[in-house]
Amino acid sequence: LGLDMEELEEIEEDAGLGNGGLGRLAACFLDSMATLGLAAYGYGIRYEYGIFNQKIRDGWQVEEADDWLRHGNPWEKARPEYMLPVHFYGRVEHSASGAKWIDTQVVLALPYDTPVPGYMNNTVNTMRLWSARAPNDFNLRDFNVGDYIQAVLDRNLAENISRVLYPNDNFFEGKELRLKQEYFVVAATLQDIIRRFKASKFGSTDSVRTVFDSFPDQVAIQLNDTHPAMAIPELMRIFVDIEKLPWDKAWDITKRTFAYTNHTVLPEALERWPVDLVEKLLPRHLQIIYEINQRHLDHIASLFPNDTDRLRRMSLIEEGGTKRINMAHLCIVGSHAVNGVAKIHSEIVKTQVFEDFAALEPEKFQNKTNGITPRRWLLLCNPGLAELIAEKIGEDYVRDLSQLTKLHEFVDDDLFIREVAKVKQENKVKFALYLEKEYKVKINPSSMFDVHVKRIHEYKRQLMNCLHIITMYNRIRRDPAKLFVPRTVIIGGKAAPGYHMAKMIIKLINAVAQVVNNDPMVGSKLKVIFLENYRVSLAEKVIPATDLSEQISTAGTEASGTGNMKFMLNGALTIGTMDGANVEMAEEAGEENLFIFGMRVEDVTELDRKGYNAQLYYDRLPELKQAVDQIKSGFFSPKDPNLFNDVVNMLFHHDRFKVFADYEAYVKCQEKVSELYLNSKAWTKMVIRNIAAAGKFSSDRTIKEYARDIWHVEPSDLKIPPPNEPRDAGQDKTPNGTAA
């Protein structure tokens, strides 16, 4: 038809139904589960408005609604035949026959199914997203004095549940609508799972009653952080109140069904719901949580008599001020397996955050290091590099990324070195053209592309990168004749709309860019770009073009990170702290093949013990002092010299993430980066060593570990015959296995 496929792809909207790493990880996991032939479903909410679109106006972030369904979504299929009721509010009535939750408000959950194809194996799994609908008698069944119009308009109240994604990453906001969303997805999904179980040959019925003994052998439910934690009391409610199972039996089945993945150790991110709110919205669930807690604490008390402080620490209910439910504690108690998402993170989970629980049941705690799908993050986004690798080691690596180790044989192959460098250069030229079109800045494609893209957060330390930019700027101006390795520094990411400091950081980066990019003394040596509206489709463009990947969180704060893995696979080198999966990347590639700097977890702990004094570093390091003074004096904001007072004040007096403490090591490490970049061949050889070591970070490996250690299912590499080929009768048998 004379249409350009790439042009067509550009038109399609991203399904921005998550905030950052958590949602993207789930997407990679769905791809891997289908590719590994697992009978797996991804459940979530079909938000009408996803993560906001970010506009930069006068250097400030401005949010716009993400109306991603405006032109329809051809990939989804509504399934009204599977619509399910979800209940809210009401009250609990106790009688001889048990508890009854009555006088509730009902919202309907309408499922939309999106196919998830495995890679070249004719397997297609399902992602089922729930949309909220008001029942047709909504507000009309109450002997309403007859305001029919208002009753129909009020349907919006029920349907608001799936209206919009809360845009916080690593931050808990205890709003009623958010709790409604969490229970909505949980209640609909559990009904769906139980309906499917009862329809299968395993849900055998004695007269009327289903026998649930085999439930955990047929169903595994993985809780992606604590956001679906209400699934634990909800499944108990179904078993005890509706299916009339005895408590102990129900609890045993529930625990064997659930497993919990922890994704953060930041205290402000941990979900702690006020008891009053839960009591109003989900009164029966609060009673069940209290009962779970009572039995849990009785057990602790029997093991540790008179240890009241331990009981307080391990309780699901936090007293003091407003009573709150600690959702992470609920998940740990209600699951048979708990895991972190990188070795270092899983250690912190065990030894610090949940040490009391790990002391009690050490066998419950595991590690499952995150991964990324090589289909999207290599084949799709970087076909040049994928093809080059295939020429050397064949095409099988796409389904078995560990085969990348074969590239070690070519690390001294001059032709291969040149080809790898050439692919990177082509990707850079292509991205430079994109930047020039979008930002009207002239980019030097032979400059080092230094990229820092992720959500804007103090712990990720975009501010430290900013201080380095100012330091480079000052060095160029101090000695313009001195050799300087040219850099294009690209920073991108969204700030939560209510996160003042993150928004100030964006403004600061743009203010610095304004000065640097327009200084004739700097010219093409240094350019700074804030990448607007960072999202998956933009990541697919920038990552293949990157030379240097910035992974500079304070040690002990980034649970894993997955962007780090994407850059490694696409031929960038990493400057980073010993945090999250960076530790394992260094382990795989050899620490000498990454630019590792700064405090380790032990150093951070020691500094906390001594007391972090930012002033000390400011006084000792002249280049740091100069950069901070420039921010403070209004050098980057001449129209409003006090604009960045809050930022400077934070850096001196309440910087939890110790930017100044790592500044010197960071700048020195960056000098080593520049030095290596001058030697193109040595740089590219290090790139090849990194790509060759990236195999561990496939989400296929991660999912195989979940399947083996937690879900107890076998992945199958059997290619199902396509529907147009007749099957043997023997091939029609589905192997028994858990649906994850």
From TrEMBL:
One of its GO terms (biological process) is glycogen catabolic process. InterPro entries: Glycg_phsphrylas (IPR011833), Glyco_trans_35 (IPR000811), Pyridoxal_P_attach_site (IPR035090). Residues 714-740 are annotated as: Disordered. It comes from the Eukaryota. Its EC number is 2.4.1.1. It catalyses: [(1->4)-alpha-D-glucosyl](n) + phosphate = [(1->4)-alpha-D-glucosyl](n-1) + alpha-D-glucose 1-phosphate. Allosteric enzyme that catalyzes the rate-limiting step in glycogen catabolism, the phosphorolytic cleavage of glycogen to produce glucose-1-phosphate, and plays a central role in maintaining cellular and organismal glucose homeostasis. Belongs to the glycogen phosphorylase family. PANTHER family: GLYCOGEN PHOSPHORYLASE, GLYCOGEN PHOSPHORYLASE, LIVER FORM. This is Alpha-1,4 glucan phosphorylase. It comes from Callaeas wilsoni (North Island kokako).
